[in-house]
């Protein structure tokens, strides 16, 4: 009899062109002792339901308890096993061209163990993924559905993981929310670094560090991106307005500087952007 808590989708060559694709999934799995001297061929996420186990890498050991998960990268030697009694886990095996770059967005480049915020939410998403994998429909359509759910699951994982007591990505962005809201409301005005830092009650130096650690860019770069995006609406909705007027409305001192930033970010000039959306 087939295990209703496990599935291994059949993938075509076309399915493997998807940026994310599911290779296998198992829920309520009693984890056995695994040792892979050459690592695993793909990516694997293993989330602890109950009990506890140990993950051994070449130079590091981790204890994996309830509310924790481990992300295994391809080709990295590892070993994991239960420490006492039953170690129940849920797991997915996946791959795709988008996997490495997705994890890089939050600085995950290696096998690691994570504490999870709201682990039960991720388990419900995994149940949804299993259901899609088991749905008796045309196989390719099922794999596309799995790809969409898998992408959602992975983005939710990276928002909820933390290492050694650090904030999760979601918590980091929540801390920046007063700053992001302020920029969205005051983009047309002069925005000083000390003003943004003051919203978080930190020094400008620490604010810059925190902002770049969370978003990957400097505060001024983010402000410019918001201003350029706002200007796109004005370019299309106010075709009679010149570039100097548009520049001032979104917080740039001159049309030339506005044009330079627009071209740097969008790879075309504001005028070319406006023309590309105008009716012929």
UniProtKB/TrEMBL annotation:
Gene3D superfamilies: Homeodomain-like, Regulatory protein AraC. Pfam families: AraC_binding, HTH_18. The keyword Flavoprotein does not apply. GO terms for molecular function: DNA-binding transcription factor activity; sequence-specific DNA binding. Keywords: DNA-binding, Transcription, Transcription regulation. Coiled coil: none annotated. It comes from the Bacteria. This is AraC-like DNA-binding protein. The lineage of its organism: Bacteria, Bacillati, Bacillota, Bacilli, Bacillales.
């Amino acid at each position: 009899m087939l295990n209703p808590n496990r599935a291994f989708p059949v993938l075509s060559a076309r399915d493997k062109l998807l940026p994310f694709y599911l290779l296998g999934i198992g829920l309520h799995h009693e984890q056995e002792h695994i040792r892979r001297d050459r690592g695993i061929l793909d990516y694997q996420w293993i989330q602890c339901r109950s009990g506890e186990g140990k993950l051994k890498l070449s130079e590091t050991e981790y204890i994996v308890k309830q509310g924790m998960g481990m992300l295994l990268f391809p080709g990295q030697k590892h070993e994991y096993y239960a420490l006492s009694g039953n170690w129940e886990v849920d797991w997915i095996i996946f791959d795709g061209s988008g996997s490495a770059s997705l994890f890089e967005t939050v600085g995950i480049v290696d096998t690691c163990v994570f504490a999870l915020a709201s682990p039960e939410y991720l388990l419900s998403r995994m149940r949804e993924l299993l259901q899609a994998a088991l749905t008796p429909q045309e196989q390719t359509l099922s794999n596309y559905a799995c790809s969409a759910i898998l992408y959602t699951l992975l983005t939710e994982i990276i928002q909820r993981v933390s290492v050694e007591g650090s904030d999760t990505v979601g918590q980091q962005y929540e801390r920046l929310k007063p700053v992001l809201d302020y920029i969205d409301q005051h983009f047309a005005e002069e925005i000083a670094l000390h003003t943004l830092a003051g919203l978080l009650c930190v020094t400008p130096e620490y604010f810059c560090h925190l902002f770049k650690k969370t978003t990957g860019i400097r505060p001024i770069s983010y402000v410019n991106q918001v201003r350029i995006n706002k200007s796109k609406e004005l370019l299309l909705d106010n075709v009679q307005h010149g570039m100097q007027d548009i520049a001032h409305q979104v917080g740039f001192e001159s049309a030339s500087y506005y044009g330079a930033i627009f071209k740097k970010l969008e790879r075309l000039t504001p005028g070319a952007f406006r023309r590309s959306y105008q009716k012929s």
